[in-house]
Amino acid sequence: ILAPVIALDGPSASGKGTVAARVAAALEFHYLDSGALYRLTALAAVRRGVLFDDVEGLTEVARALDASFVEGVILLDGEEATEAIRSEAIGEGASRVAALAPVRDALLARQRAFQRLPGLVADGRDMGSVVFPQAQLKVFLTATAEVRAERRHKQLIAKGEDVTIQKILEDIQQRDARDSARTVAPLVQLPDARLLDTSAMTIDQAVRTVLGWWETVQ
Ligand code: C5P
């Protein structure tokens, strides 16, 4: 039997990664951070000197990606890359490689391999639309661009990065536009997805809402 899937899609810096990881922990489900695969592809491309306009080169990087996820630690080519993939530059690169259909295809089977018993919480942009269209629960998790910019700003300041909220807001709006307007696997709220706007919610409240919904679809 196929393991059940909770698909959590939404824009960048919406907090869906944190919510997804907590929901997975609460249910003792597996967790797929699909954005990390696009970020790892971007990082591996930079390290190999493959340019972001080289579609064939990027597709090969994605196909040959040597990535592993071990209890919250992310490895690229056997070395820890957990922090390295979180920079703004790599996020930007990820958004560019993610717009390429052959790159997405190359990462598809890898993502589906995470669907194992007792279940999976998958977070990304196209979990409910492309990767796991049969998911038992689909959630579109979002927050206003301003709230997301504030949250991201706090995180980056805590890490010692010197950025203004204004710059982050611009980046977020640009990335939203690119993720939503692209022709392949655009970020959309599906008709069968439940909307979770976390603008005025704590992480705990968001986690409890998703867990409550999960109970109702059981
Ligand atoms: O979610 P995260 O910010 O880590 O994702 C990085 C980039 O990867 C996003 O800007 C988005 O373009 C892309 N992505 C995607 N499909 C997914 C997950 C992420 O296109 N399922």
Automatic annotation (TrEMBL):
Top EC class per UniProt? transferase
Recorded hits in PANTHER family, A to Z, give: CYTIDYLATE KINASE, CYTIDYLATE KINASE/PANTOATE-BETA-ALANINE LIGASE
State one molecular function term (GO): kinase activity
Q: What is its EC number?
A: 2.7.4.25
| UniProt source species | Chitinimonas lacunae
- Catalyzes what? CMP + ATP = CDP + ADP; dCMP + ATP = dCDP + ADP
| Alphabetical list of CDD domains matching this protein | CMPK
Q: Where is the Cytidylate kinase domain?
A: 6-211
> Which keywords annotate this record?
ATP-binding, Cytoplasm, Kinase, Nucleotide-binding, Transferase
| Name of the gene | cmk
List where in the cell it is found.
Cytoplasm
Q: Which family does it belong to?
A: Belongs to the cytidylate kinase family. Type 1 subfamily.
The name this protein carries in UniProt is Cytidylate kinase
